[in-house]
Amino acid sequence: MNQRLAPAPEDPESAMGTKSPSTLAALPTLRVHDPVGAHQCGLSPKEIEQFRRDGYLIKRDLVPGELFQPILDLWWQQPPVTESGVIREQPETWVSPGDRWLSENRWGLTNNWMGENVWPGPEAARPGATVGDRVGRLPYKLTRDRTNDVWRWHGIGHDPEFVACTTGHPNVMYMAEALLGGPIKKPYRNRGLYAVFPCDPEGPESILGPHMDQNMTELMVVTYLHDVEPGCGGFTFWPGSPQMLYPTSQQAFNWVATGASYEAMDKAKTEIQPLEFTGKAGDTLFCHALMIHSAGIHQGQGIRFACIQDMNKSRPRTHMRWTVAGKHGGPRVHCDMDGIIRIDRETGDDPADGDREVTNQWIMDSNEFVVSREPPHVDMFDEWNLGKAVVSGNIVDEQPWWERYDLPMMPEEGMGRGTGGVPAVALKDIADYEGNGVWRVRRRAI
Ligand SMILES: [Fe+2]
Questions:
Q1: 328 CA from centroid of ligand 1 (Å)
Q2: Sequence spans of domains, the chain
Q3: Which listed site, 67, 115, 310, 416, has its alpha carbon 20 to 30 Å from 19?
Q4: How far is the CA of 294 from the centre of ligand 1 (A)?
Q5: What's the 174 CA to ligand 1 centre distance in angstroms?
Q6: Domain spanning 35-105+140-311: CATH 2.40.50.140
C-alpha cells in the first residue's frame, strides 16, 4: 500500500496560506438561505447537493444552547479574563483585551514543561533548544492576530463534560455519520473553545486571514456556544474551496500540497464569495476539512464563542506527527511519514543527542498519519455517506492516542479544570537512533 515515497516532512503546526489577499467581503449565512432540512438531523436531497458542491452544511439548533451555560460560566473565571480586566457585566471591557495579556501567555499551568520553569528544571543543563523557548502548545493560547484578539482555550477541549456537549453530543455524532459515513472514531477531544473579542474601533483595520489547516482531519465542525450576529467574528469560510484543493494533494488522506495547491488557493481567494457563519447557540457548521477558512472580522458587540472540532473515520493509522527542537543553533525538524527524523550535523547540532524536546499538535483528536498513501479519488466523496446508508451508530471507541503513548493530557492534581495538554518529551523517549543523523520514531497506533 505504501509504495509511494514519504514526502518531505512539514511542521505539524503550520497552516497552508498564500500571500495574495482575499478580494471579497464575507456575507452572513442567514437562516433564510438554509436548504430544506436545516432544523432536522439527517440530510435532505438539497443538503446533500449543497455539501457535494460547496463542501459545507449548517444544522440549526443541533445542540440545545443551555447545555453550554456551565462552560461559559467557567470561561469567565479563567485568568485570561480575570487578570486582563474583562468583566462580564461591562461589555466595554471586552474590546481588544490583547494588550493586557501577559506576553508569556502561560496562565493556568503548574510546573510542567510548558510552564514557567525551564525544562526540565532550572539547575539542570537544558536538553533542548534555547533557554526560555516556549515548548509546545499551551492550554491557553492567546494571540493578537491580524484579524482580532483571539483566545483559543485548548485546555477545555479534553474536558469530558465539554466533549459530551459538543463533538460527542449524539446529534453531532449522528451528523458526522450521515456525512462521512461509519465507522466514525469516537471523539475524546476537540480543539476547545475559541473566543474572538471585538476589535478596537480606533485600532488598525482588520482583515481576513484565509488558510487551510493541513492535518489529517476529514470533517471540520464548528459549534456556537452563543449567538453570533453578522460582522461579529463569525467563522468565515470559502465554499467550494475543498473541491478545488482536494485533487491537487498528492494523497487522499494525508494532505500533501503541490504547486497546484497554491494556485488553487489563490484562485479560491479571488473568485469565491466567502461566507461568515452566523447563527444561534447550538447551530453547527460541518465542513470538508480542506475548507479554506479564517477567523471572522469582529467589529460588532459581544464575544464570539465557538467550539472548533475535528472528526474522522476510524481507519488504519501509523506513527504520530512529531516535531523536534533543534539544539546548539540547529533548526527544528519534523518526522516524515516513514517515522524518520533526520538531524543534519552540518548545522552544528549533534544528531546523536536524544536530550531535546519533542512535541506534537496535541489539540487534535487524531494525531497520527493515515497509513494509506493512495492518491486523491476521482470522486472526492466516493467514500462518504451523504445519503447512501442509514445512520446506525457505527462508532468505534478507539483508545485516545495520548493514552497509547503514555502521555499526560488531562489536568493533574493541583491544576485547574480546563488546563492540561501534552508537554514536550525527550527525543530518546519516543525514537531510536539508527546512526548517520537518523532517528526512527516508535509507532503505537492501533
Ligand atoms: Fe484554521
A1: 32
A2: 35-105+140-311
A3: 310
A4: 6
A5: 24
A6: no
